Amino acid sequence: MSITAEPRNPAADSTATTIGTHPPVNKFETFDPRTNTLIAEIEEMGSAQVEQAVDRARYLAGAWSALTYKERSRHLLHVRDRLLDSAEELVDTICAETGKQRAEAVTTELMAVCETIGWYAKNGGQVLMPQSVSPGLMAHKKAWKRYESLGVIGVISPWNYPFTLSMTPVITALFAGNTVVLKPSEVTPTVGLAIGKLFEDENWGDIVQVVTGGGATGEALVRSGVDKVCFTGSVRTGKRVMAAAADSLTPVLLELGGKDPMIVCADADLARASKGAVWGAFQNSGQTCMSVERFYVEETVFEDFVERVLVETAQIRQNASGGDIGSMTFAPQLAIVEDHIADAVSKGARILAGGKRLDQPGLWFEPTVLVDVDHTMSIMVEETFGPVMPIMSVKDSEEGLRLANDSIYGLNSSVWTSDQQLGISIANRLEAGNVCINDCIVSYAIPGLPFGGVKQSGIGRVHGPEGLREFSSVKSVMSSRVTTPREMWWFPVPKVLEALGIASARARFGTTLATRIKRFKRTT
C-alpha cells in the first residue's frame, strides 16, 4: 500500500529508489503554478535513505531531550532569527511553488511561524513542567505527572501552506524534546529543503532531517520506526497513514479535510459579513483547510447578502504582481473545482460570478459565486478546496445550524450575528473543532488555542498546551510521604479493613455533613 497524497498533500504513486551499492537517482520535478515553468528537479528518496535520516535524528534525540526548556527555546529563537534574516528568499521560494501572493506568504506563513515560536518560548516550559496531582484517598502519598519526549517524530506536510504546516509540527516536536524527520509535499519540495537549512547548525544540524519524494517516501517514513507521525492532508490519505501506522501501533496526529460552514443570521452586520465571506472563501484561492466552503444565509437577508458579495468579488485583483489572490497550486485540484461546479450547474445551480479558468498560462481560476445550491451537489458536501463560494438560502439560523452539522467534516465554522448570546449558543452547538463568531478562518493565528477537527477532519491537536503535549508522553509517578512497614491493604488483609473502609467512605462521600456525621456515628 503506497501512501499517495491527495489534494492538499498531493502525490502520484512513485517508485522508491532502488537499494544497492550505487543506486540510480530517481527524480521528480516541481513547477511554478503561475506560469507552469520548471523550478527544479528533486531527488526521490527511497526507504533506505528514509531509514538513514531517522537513524541520524535518533542519534541526537537523547542529547536534545536532555536540554532544558530554556536551552531549547534559545535554539528555536535563533532559528526564528535565521528565518527573519532570510525572509525575502523564503517568500520567493514559497510563492514560486504555491502561486500565492507575497503579502499572503508573509502573513500566513512567516509571521504565523514566528508567533508560534514565540508562544512556545514564553509558555512551553510551564506547559511541560511536572505537575502535582492530589492523591485523594491516599493522603500519605505524593503524586505527580511529568511530560517526556517521544523520540523521533515523522512529519508529512501539505502543499497549500508548505512553510507554516511544516514548521508548526516541527517546532512543536522540537520544543517537546523530540527530533524530526520532515517529508514535505512533492509539489512544494524546495520549501521543505529551505526549512532544513534553517536548522543547519554545527552542534544540532541533525535534529531536523528532510526527506523528499512522493507517496512511497511518505509510506517509508510512516513504517520507519518513528515514534509518532504527524500528517496533514486529505481524509483518504490520512486513513492510509493511520492503517500503515497501525502495524507497529505508531501513534498518529491527523489534520485532515474540511467543508467549513458559515451561518449568516438575519441580524448580522451584512457589510462586515459579506467582506468576511469573500475573504474566507477566496483567500489563498480557497486552498485552506479552514476556507469557508458553504454558506447558509437566512432568507430575509439572502438577496442583500448575495448582492454585497458580488460587489466585493468584482473588486478582487487576481494577478502575479501584488494582487489579492494568486493562482491555484496543483492541477488535479483545479480539475476537482471544475468537476464540482459542473455537477452543481447540472443540478440547477446558477453561476453569478466567475466559474472558469483564466485564459493565460498557469493554474489561474476565477473567484466563483453560485446560488440555488443544495446538499445533493458535491460542492456542498465534498471538500472543493478552490476559489468557490456556494450560497444557500435557509429559513432561519436553526435550519442553517442543522445543515452546517450535516457533514462528515468538522474542522472550522463561523456564525455571524449581532446577538452575542445567539452567536455563542450556535457556536456551542456547531460540530467543529474551531468556531469563530463574526469572523472566519483566523483561529489558527492564535498559537495558544488548540487547533484540530472532529468527525473525519482529524485526530489530535496542534497549538496551545494540548498541541505541545501531543508530542509528549505523560508519565504518572507516586511516592510515599512517610515510610511504613506495610500498606494496610497488603496481605494478610486485616479483619477491620471492611468496617474501616465503609466508615471512611461514608465520612468522605456522604452528600451532606450531617449525613456523614450520622453515618459515621452509627458505624462506630
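^ that was protein a. below is b, sequence first then the C-alpha cells
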Amino acid sequence: MRELRLLPLLAALAAIPASAAGVAVTVKSPMAPPAWALLERELLRYNSQACERFAEKYVDERGYLLHTIRWGTLDGPDDAIETFFNWTLLHALGGSDKVLELYKKAQEGHWKQYNELRTKLTTLAENGAYYKEFITQSDWFHTGEGMRAFFLLGLSEPNNELYRQRMKRFAGMYMNEDPEAPNYDPEKRLIKSIWNGSKGPMLRKATVYDWVGDPVPGSFHLLHNPAGRSKLLDMKTYYPKMLAHCTEYLDSVGDNFLNLAATNLGINAWMLTHEKKYRDWVLEYVGAWKERTAACGGNIPSNVGLDGKPGGEHNGQWWKGTYGWNFTIFDGEIEKIAHRNYLTAASWLGFANALLLTGDQSYVDVLRRQMDNIYAQKKVENGKVLLPRMYGDPRGYKYNGAPQWYEYAEEPYGDRLTEIYLWSMKRSDLERVPIKGWIAFLEGQDPEYPVKALQADFAHVRRRMELMREDPTSADTRLADYLLGVVPPATNTLVNLTLGGYFANGRIWQLHSRFRYFDPVRRRAGLPEDVGALVEKLSAEAATLALVNLSPVEARTVVVQAGGFGEHQFESVAIEGKTTPVNSPVLTVRLEPGAGSRLEFKMTRYKNPPTLAHPWDRGWYGKN
C-alpha cells in the first residue's frame, strides 16, 4: 500500500527536468515536531479558513465587495481591492487553493463593480474607475496599494495567460505602447505626472474632487476621520471636511518619486515573459532616478520637471511636490498641520527592483547614501537618536529663510534600514537596524521569537474574526476602507520565518526573500502539506534552514528555491555533516515520515535572472 501511495510522488519527480529539479537529497533523521512548525501549519490552515469566512460574509456571488462604492483616494477603488492585499501571498506560502480562487473572483468582480461607478465632480471616473482594467488616473501610492495582491498572483500562477496579457498591457502603458496612455517621456526618461494611468498623465493641477470624488447619500463608518471608525457620520455633513483634507494636494505635473512603484509592472512582465524590453525599461527609468539623486547630493528628489531636471516644476526646489520632502500642509479635516513625506513608499521599491534584475549593489548604495544624509542631521535627546522626516520650508517650525531638515522622530526609518541590510548583508548596515523581533532572532538574541510571533498572529486572526462576527455595519454604511480593519489573514511572520523575507510597513510590495518552496506532487507554489520551514540564520554567502515533515505516516517532498524568484544560487548544502554540491537555484528535498534536519547552504546571491516560472517549467532558465 505504501508503494501505491508513493506512485504520484515518484511520477511527479520524474516529470521535473533535471535542470529544474537540481540536486535531490533525502532527510531521514527523526525530529520531534517543533512548536514553530506546528504553529506554521495551523496558521496556514486557519488563515485560509478565515479568508473563506470573510468572503462568505462580504463578497457576493458576482465577486462584488459588499460596500458603497465611491471614487476617491480616501475610500475609493484602491481600498476596496486592497482588502485582499495578502491573499495571493498566503497561497504562495502554502495556503489553500480556495483562497486563490476567492481572490480571483473578487478581483474580477472589483473591476466590474467599479466600472459601474459614475462621477459628476471629476472626469476621472465619469465612465468608471477603470479603463482597460487599469485605474484611469491616480498616484502610485494609492494605485500600488490596490495592486498588491495582483502583483503577487504570478507567484502562484505564472502560466495564467490572462494574467500575463494583463501584466504586459499594464506595463505597456508606461512604455508608450498604448497611444491612449502616453505616461512616459522616453527622451527625458520620466513619467509625466504624479497622476497617471490608463488615461495617461494629468498635465494640469488636480482638484479636490479628483482626490475625494463625489459625495454619496447616507451615513457611514468613515475610517479617515478623527472620530474613529465606530461612529456613524452623515456624508452630506462630513463631505466638506473630506474636501478640506486635500486642499493642498493639487500639484501634479512632472515626475514624482512615487512613480518608481510603476517598475513593479515592468519587472513582473519581464519575469513572466523574459522579453528584454521590460527589463530595459525598468533599468532605464531607475537609472534616470539614480542620476537625479546624485545631482541632488544623494537626496532622492520628490519632483522632476518635464524638462527632466530635479525641481523643474518648482523653480529648482527638488524637495517640493505632493507627498514630497516638504509636503507639510494644513489638513482641514483634522484642522492642524500634517507632515506627509512619502519618500519611502515607492523609491525603495524602484531601486530594489533594479537590484533584482541586475544584482548591482550600486542601487542599494543610492538608498544608503540617502540614509547617510539623514543621519548626518541626527539629534540625540535623552539618549535617543532622533532623525528628520522632512526637508524644506518648515511650516509650523521656526524658519531661518533657507531649506532645512525638520520634524524629528525616533526610529522613523527602521523598516527601510532593515531592507538595506537584507539587500546588502553588510554588517555595517546592520549597525543602524533596530535589533529586535525577527532581526534579533536571526542574530541569535531571541530564540523564542518564532513561537511568540506565530502566537501573536493567531491572536490577530482571532481578533479579526471577532470583529467580523460583531460587525455592526451593512453594505450601505460601509465605504471601501472599512473592511481593511476587519480582513483576517496574517502573513508577515510566515514570510520572515519560512522564506527569510521581509515585507515592511510600506504599502507597495515586491517579494525579496532568501528562499521559496514548491510542492512537486500538487504542482503548485507553497510549502507542501505537513512541511514546516524555519530560516535560522542569514549572511552574505550562507543561510541556515530547518525543514521538518510533521507527518509520522507519509514522506513529503519539497522543492526549495534560492530566492523568491530564483535569483540566488545554491552552491552547496550541508546536512548532518555531509556536504553536497548543488550549483543550482533549486534543491529537491525528500523528508521521510517524521524526519527533519538543519540544512546549511553556501550560496551566491543575485547570480541568476529572476523568474516567476515554477521549477518544472524552467527549460529556458539561465539563458540571456
